[in-house]
Design goal:
The chain has five helices and three strands; from the N terminus they run ααβααββα. The protein has 126 residues and is mainly α. The chain has a domain of 83 residues: Winged helix-like DNA-binding domain superfamily/Winged helix DNA-binding domain (Arc Repressor Mutant, subunit A), CATH 1.10.10.10. A three-stranded antiparallel beta sheet has the order 1-3-2. The protein is elongated and about 75 Å long. It comes from Methanothrix harundinacea.
């Protein structure tokens, strides 16, 4: 993965996000995981800008990631001291733990599929 934050995710970062997606992670969640792993922390605006997602998409992703306890959210006062504070998101679950979670989900799905195949075989031998 690239060091620092680039204008957009580079090819290696895109590949990382695509691999997460290929393993069943929602595409937008995969993009945000990748971005936060590089950036460390970011506002919604940063995430929109660097991942190419729109604000509603970012909100949905953040809801999903909060549910998984993968991010921390904190409020930061607006630099002008007016209006609502900005939410700053930080990835709090290490990438290897997220990958382990994805791996375990795929193992469960595979085991369930194998059970179904075995039931089919049992039923086919009447």
């Amino acid at each position: 993965m690239s060091e620092g934050v680039a204008e957009v995710l580079d090819d290696s970062d895109q590949e990382f996000a695509e691999l997460l997606y290929n393993l069943g992670v929602q595409r937008n969640v995969a993009k945000v995981i990748t971005y936060l792993a590089i950036a460390g922390e970011a506002t919604s605006k940063d995430i929109e800008r660097w991942t190419g997602l729109r604000q509603p998409e970012v909100s949905i992703v953040m809801r999903t990631m909060r549910r998984e306890n993968w991010i921390n959210v904190r409020d930061v006062k607006n630099s002008e001291g007016k209006g609502r504070p900005h939410k700053v998101y930080t990835l709090i679950t290490p990438l290897d733990e997220i990958i382990r979670h994805v791996e375990e989900e795929r193992r469960k799905e595979s085991a369930k599929a194998m059970e179904t195949i075995q039931k089919l075989r049992d039923l086919a031998s009447f």
